[in-house]
């Protein structure tokens, strides 16, 4: 549970396009790290390379090392499927499996891992739904389709699905961007809650959200049009928002960007 | 300089987050000026119909009505022609297996045999075409490298362009001899099951329901494959990635997302194929041998389907009373195809809640 991540000199490509250049950063266990930066600077790309989701895009590849508690997830002997089982991901748009019931959505990952015991699945479903603050809202309709929930509920369902397999790390790509303020707060509270057990990396365009939920913040930027995105700086959130080292960071967070 | 102004939650940041469109987090003031656009239809005159709209609606409604009218007229034609000849029929036309229309004064025709052979041929075709099409569609959309997938898909589509008379000739003269050993093996090992029992025509020539079904199955491949492929391709990427992020292997991704998403489309594609199979004429007319006895329930029987029976008799259409017998058979085929289409639709809409 809750492992640390060390990224070393990561270069990420989409075919010939060099999308992200030379990222090096560390994420301590049981902490929240926020990725901020202008659109197109490669936040999602970096995030997706942390659980080897980047390479599912045709032609996409990664150079460099990502160490999970010292183990390189890009080592040749490592199975990407296994990596994704230990590093969970929540997407920008909630994506529950529409043909599955709420309960089956939550335990989908466990079923993939070969768990068949019904009472164990039920138990995990309840624990994960409670963990995602969704249990009370859905406990009477666990066998209804997951697509029938509201957007915020669907997103929490997706979080429940991701934590049901007890991953070491939880990656979230703008998890609140399609949600209303109430659901957003619910998810922010949840992130603070989950921090006790998980290492969390979250991409967000919402500066207050980064300030509210994260322990450290990484600012990404583009050197120019057509240039690869790069990590400008990473530091304690408090420091980034009050006294950033780089001028670009300060300009960005104070809204004087571009 | 500005260090003092920057706070943990800087005021400037809220402006930024407001317009980077964080999905309706803050109802920004920009949305109100858009009012006039939505207000216009309410305050202005009642829904004004523009000429372009009217013409287009007329055209589309017209074409829709035309189709319905055409189908109705065809049905009516069949009914009007069929009813009098049913009256002349000396045997029960639903349950009899007899078919003799040479003497217009003594018409003896029943559709049971035709119905059974038609259904049997189509079922054999579907049993072959459904799994193979599913495999091809999955291969093309999930496994084949894009460079290979395109020409391969094109080749499968080309299969639909081969005229059915070619399929018939190829089936009888090329495929049937190849199938003969398989047929005799099935007959030898599984002959105790009625559908694999000895047939009523010579198995060497291969004019059997089995041969006809295999050829028909090949003819259905492009139909079922192309529709199924389209549906599979439309599986939302978000769902595929959701499964991958949970640690699904490629096959598990297919099982959890592609198949559930495409199931209804696959079934309706198969139903469409079945509709096509029921009415296929010329290939079956060439392949199927007319036996001296009636259909005994084995796929190694010969026989005639509705369509092949009508086609092979068409040269002898001289007395309107005997023609009526064939039209009656046509009417049943028409209804059967309708039924299949309805069944397909019912299956597709059955699990609507989950889509
Ligand atoms: N599938 C893809 N194929 C090719 N290029 C891509 C693909 N996805 C992203 N890119 C490119 O990679 C760069 C980084 O994109 P990325 O999605 O990581 O940005 P981001 O920081 O997440 O932006 P946003 O804030 O808008 O989500 C962009 O230039 C983008 O155009
Ligand atoms: Mg992004």
TrEMBL record, chain A:
Any Gene Ontology CC annotation: plasma membrane
One of its GO biological process terms is: phosphate ion transmembrane transport
The organism's place on the tree of life at top rank: Bacteria
Q: Which InterPro entries match?
A: AAA+_ATPase, ABC_transporter-like_ATP-bd, ABC_transporter-like_CS, P-loop_NTPase, PstB-like
| UniProt KW keywords | ATP-binding, Cell membrane, Membrane, Nucleotide-binding, Phosphate transport, Translocase, Transport
State which residue ranges cross the membrane.
Answer: none
Its localization reads: Cell inner membrane
Q: Which GO terms describe its molecular function?
A: ATP binding; ATP hydrolysis activity; phosphate transmembrane transporter activity
Give membrane topology per the record.
Peripheral membrane protein
Q: Specify the ABC transporter domain's residue ranges.
A: 5-247
Q: What does this protein do?
A: Part of the ABC transporter complex PstSACB involved in phosphate import. Responsible for energy coupling to the transport system.
Which protein is depicted?
Answer: Phosphate transport system ATP-binding protein
Automatic annotation (TrEMBL), chain B:
Question: Which GO cellular component term is one of those annotated?
Answer: plasma membrane
Keyword Transport on this protein? yes
Locate the region Disordered. Answer: 1-46
Q: Which UniProt keywords apply?
A: Cell membrane, Membrane, Phosphate transport, Transmembrane, Transmembrane helix, Transport
Q: What is the membrane topology here?
A: Multi-pass membrane protein
Q: Where are the transmembrane segments?
A: 64-87, 107-140, 152-176, 205-224, 281-300, 323-348
- Where the record annotates domain ABC transmembrane type-1, the positions are 115-344
Its Gene Ontology biological processes? phosphate ion transport
The Gene Ontology terms for molecular function here are: phosphate transmembrane transporter activity
Instruction: Name where it's found.
Output: Cell membrane
Query: What CDD domains does the record point to?
Result: TM_PBP2
UniProt xrefs under InterPro entries: MetI-like, MetI-like_sf, Phosphate_PstC, Phosphate_Transport_Permease
Q: What family classification does the UniProt entry report for this protein?
A: Belongs to the binding-protein-dependent transport system permease family. CysTW subfamily.
Q: Which NCBIfam families match?
A: phosphate_pstC
Q: What does this protein do?
A: Part of the binding-protein-dependent transport system for phosphate; probably responsible for the translocation of the substrate across the membrane.
Q: What is this protein called?
A: Phosphate transport system permease protein
Which organism does this sequence originate in? Goodfellowiella coeruleoviolacea
Task: Read off the lineage from the record.
Answer: Bacteria, Bacillati, Actinomycetota, Actinomycetes, Pseudonocardiales
